[in-house]
Amino acid sequence: MNVILFGPPGAGKGTQAGAVCERHGLLQVATGDIFRKNLKEKTELGQLARSFMDKGQLVPDEVVWKLVEDRLAQPDTEAGVLFDGFPRTVTQAELLVGWAESSGRGLSAVVALEVPDDELVARLSGRRTCLSCGATYHVAHNPPSKDGVCDRCGNDVVQRDDDNEVTVRKRLATYHRQTAPVLEWFGERAVRVDGTGAIGAIGARVQAAIGS
Ligand code: ADP
Ligand code: ADP
Ligand code: ZN
């Protein structure tokens, strides 16, 4: 079972991913988290990704696909993957669907979280992230129980460099120009879910979308 959790930056993909993975025994593959891990470890890939991330642009498709393809070759992905933040272009979607067909590993669901832009800006501007485990919080809506400390792993919770209002606006423009067409490309294969309201209520909608 392989699932795509799709949506604009700030839609709640990371927030919802944990429960879905737990329930279905999936491994979360979040391309943004992989880039940030590389950044932290100062790898060449990290430096390259940063030059795009800082500008609110997408990392080139060939770089992203090489990374995802290598990840999917590892045995821990065989039981199923939840893709978070991938695919972000029609080319990436074509490559993934091609892989799903040729490998026989398939694609079971595409769930798209829908949230209006104004709310996305408010969510991203208040977002705090644990750079060790990828957990996300919100200063007002979903703070960690101890200020600045990750509930899940105990490491520091910080504001991402690209979660400032100027870069957030650019990322949303990038989403509308390059990523929203992916949803059209999937057509009826994608199930659209209202991504507003309480986190638990959205989780139930996501669950229903995967089940159907
Ligand atoms: P968000 O949680 O706000 O959606 P991510 O952590 O998924 O952000 O991604 C952060 C940045 O990493 C993106 O703005 C982009 O520059 C880069 N990135 C992540 N995933 C991809 C991808 N699939 N294709 C191209 N660039 C990506
Ligand atoms: P994505 O992975 O899609 O970029 P996140 O899961 O990181 O999005 O969520 C973005 C921000 O919005 C985080 O600060 C998160 O705590 C907050 N958030 C997530 N879901 C909700 C919700 N239903 N209502 C309010 N804030 C939310
Ligand atoms: Zn953590």
Summarize the structure in words.
The chain has 212 residues and is an alpha/beta fold. It has one domain: 3-Layer(aba) Sandwich (Rossmann fold), CATH 3.40.50.300. Helix content is 48%, strand content 15%. The protein contains eight helices and eight strands; from the N terminus they run βαβαααβαβαβββαβα. The strands form two sheets. It has a five-stranded parallel β-sheet. Strands 6-5-7 form a three-stranded antiparallel β-sheet. Strand 5 and strand 6 form a beta hairpin. The chain is globular. The two termini are 13 Å apart. The mean pLDDT is 96. Zinc ion binds next to loops.
Which features would summarize this protein structure in a list?
single chain; 212 residues; alpha/beta; Rossmann fold; 5-stranded parallel β-sheet; 3-stranded antiparallel β-sheet; 8 helices; 8 strands; globular; binds adenosine-5'-diphosphate; binds zinc ion
